[in-house]
């Protein structure tokens, strides 16, 4: 049952019908939220955490239960020098940056998550904007922004890799509020996964 006014409901339903009629090749992800006045807002570039995705992007981020060896090798070949250059520029171990990319996107520069994170290092639109990354699908811009953000998180948490990775995954404020890794299974799994891949790259 729609809890909005009749007019708002009709506008929302009409908008959804139009959105779903858009051909798949040109359809982008769409976010929406209802404000305190009952007004329905739609956007493809969310600027507020209240926005929820209602239409997913065409290309979804792959699930990372195990790292695909072929993608790993191809990714290191395509982006290895760029990763090393950005890691050294910001004082990070290239193996750590590489591990984050491997787990986040499996080296897919066009990856998009269900929540709207984009590119190799899976930058959320708001985070990308704060970092000055105008095109998160550009490998150099994405790696530059993601590496700077990872460095900022490491500095914030006194170079505690576990906390920095947790913050990268679930947001800095959640880690601050919990004074540690939040009790979110996916985040604990993410931290373990990145550290495991990081160890593999160190030994290569």
Structural class: mainly alpha
CATH architecture of the largest domain: Orthogonal Bundle
* Strand element count: 3
Cα-atom radius of gyration: 19 Å
- How much of the polypeptide forms β-strand, as a percent range? 5-15%
CATH T-level fold name of the largest domain:
Lysozyme
Determine the N-to-C terminus distance. Answer: 57 Å
Task: Please outline what is shown here.
By secondary structure, this protein is mainly α. It is 54% helix and 6% strand. The model is unreliable at 22-27 and 58-65 (pLDDT under 50).
Provide a descriptive summary of the structure in words:
The chain is mainly α and 204 residues long. The protein folds into 2 domains: 6-55, no CATH class; 69-203, Lysozyme (Orthogonal Bundle), CATH 1.10.530.10. The protein is 54% helix and 6% strand. The chain contains 8 helices and 3 strands; from the N terminus they run αβββααααααα. It has a 3-stranded antiparallel sheet, covered by helices on one side. A hairpin with a 5-residue loop joins β1 and β2. It is globular, with a radius of gyration of 19 Å.
Name some characteristics of this structure.
Lysozyme, 3 strands, 3-stranded antiparallel beta sheet, mainly alpha, 2 domains, 204 residues
